[in-house]
Amino acid sequence: MHVITPESEAFLRRYLDNASPTGHEASGQKLWLQYLKPYIDEWQVDNYGTAYGIINPGTDYRVVIEGHADEISWFVNYITEDGFLHVIRNGGSDHVIAPSMRVFVHLRNGERVEGMFGWPAIHTRTDKDANLTPALENITVDVGAKDREEVTKMGIHVGCVVTFQDSFTIINNRYYCGRALDNRIGGFCIAEVARLLKENNIRLPYTLYVVNSVQEEVGLRGAEMVANTIKPNVALITDVTHDTHTPMINMKKHGDIRCGNGPTVTYAPAVHNRLLDLIVRTAEETEIPFQREAASRSTGTDTDAFAYSNGGVPSALISLPLRYMHTTVEMAHKDDVNHLIRLLYEVLQRIEYGHDFRYFTSI
Predict the structure, then answer these.
(1) Where are the beta strands (DSSP E) in the chain?
(2) Are 124 and 55 in the same domain?
(3) CB-based burial of residue 7 (10 Å sphere; 0-12 exposed, 13-18 middle, 19+ buried)?
(4) Which residues of the chain have pLDDT under 50?
(5) Are 222 and 287 contained in the same domain?
(6) CATH, residue 120
(7) According to the model, what pLDDT value does residue 121 have?
(8) What is the pLDDT of residue 10?
(9) 154 in a domain, yes or no?
(10) Does one domain contain both 304 and 249?
(11) Residue 130: its pLDDT value, please?
């Protein structure tokens, strides 16, 4: 069953090509809500920018499906006398891939300045520094300015956010590829679930919150805040995980996950076993392929924020295998995206009003 339409794929392209760095997600949230609005009854945005749509509002049993909206980026941290910008991370940005990458420096007025991470030519490096590798201390952004004063006149100052330039593409008609699939592809998937519920006239017996959280990349902060606002009874979280069949990844350490073999379900302390059993049973009954992985201690995703909020919320994590995470060429298999959407859609129809996930209520 192919659930993604040409119209929804066009939205995905617009959504991924838009920059929404951590702490500055507003423009992406507007795009997301505009797409979601026909399929929901109400919507809200909290003080820090987490957006959510509400389906069948007003019941006292609340279910969340969630992704996160932010992407990794950089902050300008120092401007040299010669007009070069030193940066620090905003989230888990990878300094190794930075040299020769084109960037946008985002200004406070909404405009942006083009630049690039420069790197010394091979001809200029001696035997002594032949093995020179990128580090946070030696990568700099060049915006073509002659000095610090000209940089300032451009509107650039310490605290401006820097994102890589790139564009969404499809590889071999099989893989979505681009920047920030981690995890705007999750926001796309939950929006598609809302669309399917609306188009197929599915009436859920509870209130569904379709949540696109902010600031996941710096500590699950948006999920932490919105979990305390919604106070859900159940939370189904989507995020990305590593395709471990790409070169230089240790499967003994990171598990055996391959793009094209379906979304993954995670076994971890934060994942509620009875909710996980429901997801696995649903996948098996509907013949949706899936893979399994385990997380030591925390999952490192918004699952942890929801699970440990409000005295404990039954939560589970369904992830999309991804190649080259935290780069500008993240790749997700189309089939996996379709199967993740279908799995969420089917699981929601198997959650009953007042569904009690406690392990036991009497002894």
Answers:
(1) 42-45, 51-55, 62-68, 73-79, 84-90, 102-106, 112-117, 140-142, 161-164, 169-171, 175-178, 207-213, 234-242, 264-267, 291-294, 315-322, 330-333
(2) no
(3) exposed
(4) none
(5) yes
(6) 2.40.30.40
(7) 86
(8) 96
(9) yes
(10) yes
(11) 58
